[in-house]
């Protein structure tokens, strides 16, 4: 199959795959609209299925995620022999959840806070989606995440069922968890205050930092690819721009974004929703170790990256440790 035909096929799959959840939810909203009148208790006039959907918005989100993402994505991924689709939908699902929470019949919220949160989520999503396609050279499903490929070889014949939990159930925990503040924003009606503006600043700062960090990384990788093409030695390590002050400024920006959303929820009295971002941060700490171990296994960059580790902050941008750098050079 040619590259264009593969792109068209994968694009069609990507656009069609969320339809079961979308159509089910539209049907639910239609039933609520058709069977209730203003000021009526909808739960008294709905069938048991729609009544449950009406009274359990957060559980319904989990059920839709389980069947549409965990099960359907998993089946399709084995047919395609690639788990590429979950990476793309990581950038889309938070937007879908934001609209789901805001349109559910039980939703109640401050209009301005809701629109600000949805707009910020769109900006975050567009940035990350752009980075995904730029990294993949504007192809649909050309490859899956290298971590999934490594696990495929690690688990061998057991990968078909391990992947259901390692790739999809795990994503449900992370995505539903980190989007809990979006649920709170659309469940509590309260006036805007100074903490909302703090949350906006933190969210925007995270998006901006991640954008510039990913752009600098993309330019570095592109330059090295061009050097390889002409037979010149590649640059072993990126330590310019934001990467001069942090080994993973893109990860730092991404975490700022999610913790900014937590501030919205904390301000509304639901500080416990930080647990989603905490789990995501802990997971990212593990991913950071995997990435750095991978760097150190590459002979041409191992020495340079080892020094980089000793002199540069892991996540939070900070000044280089010059003393360690000088000492390392003199030994």
Q: What letter string, H or E per element, gives the SSE order?
A: HHHHHHHHHHHHHHH
Residue-averaged pLDDT, rounded? 93
Query: Helicity range of the residues?
Result: over 70%
Shape: globular
Q: Main sheet?
A: none
Structurally, how many domains make up the residues? 2
Q: Which band does the percent of strand residues land in?
A: under 5%
Task: Please report the total strand number as a whole number.
Answer: 0
Helical segment tally? 15
Structural class: mainly alpha
GO cellular component, one term: membrane
Organism: Trema orientale (Charcoal tree)
Keywords: Membrane, Transmembrane, Transmembrane helix
InterPro entries: UstE-like (IPR010721)
Q: Can you give a write-up of this model?
A:
The protein contains 15 helices and no strands. It has helices at 3-16, 19-35, 48-55, 57-80, 85-90, 93-103, 111-135, 146-155, 159-178, 180-185, 194-229, 249-267, 274-296, 299-311, 322-330. Helix 8 packs antiparallel against helix 9, helix 9 packs across helix 13 and helix 11 packs antiparallel against helix 12 (249-267). It starts with a helix and ends with a helix. It has two domains: 8-26 and 53-188; 193-321, no CATH class. With 331 residues, the chain is an all-alpha fold. The radius of gyration is 22 Å and the shape is globular. Pfam families: DUF1295. It comes from Trema orientale.
